[in-house]
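Schema walk-through. Below, the input block comes first and the output block second. Nothing else is stored per chain. Lengths vary across the set, and this one has 318 residues.
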Amino acid sequence: MLRAIALAKKAINPSPNPRVGCVIVKHNKVIAEGFHHEAGKPHAEIEALRKAGKQAQNATLFVNLEPCNHHGKTPPCSKAILKAGIKKVVIGMRDKSKAKGGMDFLRKNSVEVVAGICEKKCKELNQVWLKNTEKQLPYLTLKLALDENGNTIPAKGKKWITGEKARKEVMRMRRKHDAILVGVNTIIIDNPHLTVRGIKSKQQPVRIILNPQQRDISKAKIWRESGKTLEITQKDFPRYNLKSILQKLYHQGITSILVEGGRFTAEKLLAAGLVDKLEIFQHNNEGSPPQLFGKKFPLEWKCNFEKDSLFSGFLNHY
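--- output ---
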């Protein structure tokens, strides 16, 4: 199951689908494996079954999410598993979406099914998809860079707080999300690109600017970047309710958002309980989780990028 999870992580951003990996074992030997690359491509089980071929007969299949049991862009994996002659299926977590039912289908057709293996890790892997399914809202990850004193603004004469390696990690974070969100002050003060640069990316994330008072940002460089930019003003949302804004974004196909705004935007979203995960870089941190705006959050050290430490923590669990 841990191997299936590792395979699932290879998918950069399969939105709106979950991350799924699959391993097929026979006589205690891995004979095939696969993962779901992106929406519209074969599911992990199908990719692994195609590689296994006739060897799948009487084998055991491990998958981190219950095999789908409905016709979407692809046929049901449950029927493909049965047809291939798999004798046992080991599942990490149940599917509560409209695709559920694979476990019951397989059991009714005499396939042995074991569920709940490494369930906590499987759920953690697919927090974005679980929130989408449960709340009909995009998953929000707040990314901030702090100096050694906890400030979010670079020292005078400096362009960035963190070093080059930490900034490259931010590019990888951007690539994994459907959209990047900032407040209008970030656009006016920093005039950022808000694009994925320096690493391969199939497409740029949607850029979202919260600009309730319709401040003039017509000359910002963001408008000259490839991809889509959304400016959200009180003209669109007279009451400017953040949850309503997120609901509309979700129904426009945005399932995950990386929030890169400044302190004002961060505090607004945190106060509204809309942030699901924190990714906090701090320069010259010796290993103790930083406070954020004078408050403690459930942060744990993740890794170092030279002089920059990355701390991560979940605020909501699905």
